[in-house]
């Protein structure tokens, strides 16, 4: 029987970085569901799709195929056969992903793929509703969060390292707005599952959070 780990939490909490390292240490398959939603968002953005128009959204989704693969130990995300792993972390795509991922048509497109993989393999998935909707029977659920100030500072440093011009105040404002949208959307809002372990990484290093998740997993296996 496969063992599933679900990590949920708000934007900028470090879910992807921590999930990748924990999965590698445990020998699990890491599934970056956020990257998959971002790939769809990139496709919708490129097509100039009005996601509030159901007919237009469905038509655009019919022309979008998202898949995952690996190069070495790194997961790659493909949009219609194109590796878009390096193109899905912009603010424009982030905003589109936050809006489009709330649409049931978008969520349905990816849910079956994610659940099928979890049935067959030991997986660690991170996202917004993994423990509440995608993998409600996961043996370990973690709600990973951090203060808005901490998350904004982390993202600000990431942009500076990539040579992007940005404003810390604008990033903090965007994170607050995204938190509100994610927590109040009609479909699968962001929330902590009742049986999830709360981990606040505001004052923890990445390695400390990884060690906590690995320890929790080994206690349950």
Account of the protein in words:
The protein has 221 residues and is α/β, with parallel strands linked by helices. The chain is 51% helix and 17% strand. It is built from nine helices and eight strands. The protein has helices spanning 15-26, 33-46, 54-62, 91-100, 104-120, 130-134, 148-161, 168-184, 206-220, and strands at residues 4-8, 29-32, 66-71, 74-79, 82-83, 123-127, 140-145, 197-200. The strands form two sheets. Strands 2-6-1-7-8 form a five-stranded parallel beta sheet, sandwiched between helices. Helix 1 crosses helix 9 and helix 2 runs antiparallel to helix 5. The radius of gyration is 17 Å and the shape is globular. The model has no long low-confidence stretch (mean pLDDT 92).
State the separation between the terminal residues, measured CA to CA: 11 Å
Let me know the average pLDDT: 92
The number of helices is 9
Helix content: 40-55%
Q: What are the main properties of this structure?
A:
8 strands; alpha/beta; 3-stranded antiparallel sheet
List the helices and strands and how they pair.
Layout: E1 4-8, H1 15-26, E2 29-32, H2 33-46, H3 54-62, E3 66-71, E4 74-79, E5 82-83, H4 91-100, H5 104-120, E6 123-127, H6 130-134, E7 140-145, H7 148-161, H8 168-184, E8 197-200, H9 206-220
Parallel strand pairs: 1-6, 1-7, 2-6, 7-8
Antiparallel strand pairs: 3-4, 4-5
Helix pairs in contact: 1-9, 2-4, 2-5, 7-8
In short:
This protein has helices spanning 15-26, 33-46, 54-62, 91-100, 104-120, 130-134, 148-161, 168-184, 206-220; strands spanning 4-8, 29-32, 66-71, 74-79, 82-83, 123-127, 140-145, 197-200. It has 221 residues and is an alpha/beta fold. Helix 2 (33-46) runs antiparallel to helix 5 (104-120).
């Amino acid at each position: 029987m496969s063992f599933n780990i679900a990590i949920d939490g708000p934007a900028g909490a470090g879910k992807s970085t921590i999930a990748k390292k924990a999965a590698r240490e445990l020998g699990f398959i890491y599934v970056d569901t956020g990257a998959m939603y971002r790939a769809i968002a990139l496709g919708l953005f490129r097509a100039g799709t009005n996601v509030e128009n159901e007919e237009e959204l469905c038509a655009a989704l019919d022309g979008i195929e998202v898949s995952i693969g690996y190069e070495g130990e790194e997961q790659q995300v493909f949009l219609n056969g194109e590796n878009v792993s390096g193109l899905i972390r912009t603010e424009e795509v982030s905003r589109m992903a936050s809006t489009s991922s709330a649409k049931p048509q978008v969520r349905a497109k990816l849910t079956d793929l994610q659940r099928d993989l979890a049935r067959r393999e030991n997986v660690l998935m991170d996202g917004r509703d993994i423990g509440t909707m995608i993998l409600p029977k996961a043996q370990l659920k973690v709600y990973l969060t951090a203060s808005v100030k901490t998350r904004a500072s982390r993202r600000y440093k990431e942009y500076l390292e990539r040579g992007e011009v940005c404003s810390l105040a604008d990033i903090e404002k965007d994170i607050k707005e995204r938190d509100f949208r994610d927590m109040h959307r009609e479909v699968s809002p962001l929330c902590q599952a009742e049986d999830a372990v709360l981990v606040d990484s505001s004052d923890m290093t990445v390695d400390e959070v990884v060690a906590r998740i690995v320890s929790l997993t080994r206690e349950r296996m």
